[in-house]
Amino acid sequence: MISRLHPSYRACGMVALLVIAAPLVGCSTYLQTQEHAERIITNRQRQTARLQTSQVRQSPAIESPSKRLPDVESVVSERPVDAYVREALERNPGIQAAIAQARAQLERIPQVTSLADPILRAVTRPEPIQTAAGDVYFTFSISQTFPLLAKLERSGDIAAAQTRLALEQLNSKRIQVIADVERAYWQIYRVDRNLEITRENRRVLEDLSHVVETQYEVGDVPQQDLLRVQTEIAKLRDDERRLMFQRRTAAAALNRLADQAIDRAIPTIDPVNVIAVDSDVDDLIQLAANHNPELAILNESISAKEAQVELARLGYWPDLTLGFEWNYLEGRDSFVPPINPSTGQRPAYSRKSEVGDDNWAVMLQFNLPIWTGRVEAAKREAHQRLIAAKKEQHDTENMIAFRVFDAWSRVQAQQHTLRVLDDELIPQSRQTYEVTLTAYQSGKSDFVALIDHWRRWLDFELMRHRETVDLELAFTDLQREVGMQLLRNESANNEHADSAKGASQ
Predict the structure, then answer these.
(1) 404-426: per-residue pLDDT in tens?
(2) How far, rounded to the nearest angstrom, does the alpha carbon of residue 123 sit from its chain's CA centroid?
(3) Which residues, including other chains, have CB under 8 Å from residue 226's CB and lie 6 or more apart?
(4) pTM of this prediction?
(5) Number of other CB atoms surrounding residue 136 within 10 Å
(6) pLDDT tens digits, residue range 62-81?
(7) Which superfamily does 47-114+147-317+369-503 belong to?
(8) Which of 57, 87, 189, 248 is nearest to 473 (CA)?
(9) How would you label 168-186 residue by residue, b for 16+ Cβ within 10 Å and e otherwise?
């Protein structure tokens, strides 16, 4: 039926078909890649990683990726720090920026897998091209380039891998924020315990100063004993002021992570039991190899570079361009030859130019990848980048194994130190102080020995809380390197958590 139409109508019909078909092909490619992208996000949402059970509130649009829900993950009770962790995960600007970056990267997939825009060309000629069929005043053409389908697929694989990489970076940012929140929280905890011990010891010395003052008034002790205890009390007051400034700084760090006002008040943190961590270092290194976010990022980077290698190998395949061209012809008067005098007749002539039928053409073109040096260089570049990524991954695996071992060693060392403090040093130093105090009150010991034993007891008490915080920080570092929550137990023995208070009774 189309063949029966006027040539101009046939040309317009073919133009319309090409205009309609090209976007449909591009739309089909877009829908396929968009569906692929949605599957990527859905799969990552189903495998969301959590360092703290119940404390990660996921974004409704993009979730943190992962393979991070192994069987060894434990379910622990809510801790006071978890509330601050949840707040930071919901409000931290760095996390919000990582979410936006992942969303932006997701939109790269339909861009790199869609066809390029069709080329529409219109040419008008003030001076027409004169042909036997008529004068060509106007030319209209449309063309569409169709690259090799495998090129679009590899480009989509690269964009998909980079999207997964952005999701892993989001997960890494969340894990880092959790670690930073816990670090700031335990710094506040350390200052609170030091403040508590300092205040209690100041009260102990104030009570002792009354005893010394009474004995001084009756001439049992020299004035230097009274001056020494007053100096120690003044020093403790100065320590309190210094610790208050340190607490404000630590609280400001915690508020910054949660995007809160810097001067927001943080309540005093109650004493906690010492945790006990029983894990084999080889098992922890294996967990880190499977779940560390840095390694997950490098894995996705390797996937993207592998796709880039495949894309570079397709450089020898040309891109096909199809097009249609239509020329508008305007009829003109035919050339009429003069009458032949010898015959008295006018020679025959063509009247085709008076009709002016439009003409059209189908175009087929493709590039010729004859410059093989460029293609080979692109292949070598992609291959070397892949090698570099794999070497970087191997180096990172070694570094993470070291960091896991280092954090595990610090956990073990802190646990040993705390056991020694709780079982030996603190009880012994406390008992020594009490015995010396009794001897001093009875005149059998000097004040210098009493102050020295008191100072040693105070140092051990401060060391215990410092070691407790260091243990928590080392455990936080260990979880960050492993990339998941680890089993932790809290010691039921908490008799030393308030030993400073007991000393004042």
Answers:
(1) 999 999 999 988 999 999 999 99
(2) 52
(3) 209, 212, 213, 216
(4) 0.73
(5) 19
(6) 333 333 333 333 334 578 88
(7) Outer membrane efflux proteins (OEP) (1.20.1600.10)
(8) 189
(9) bbbbbbbbbbbbbbbbbbb
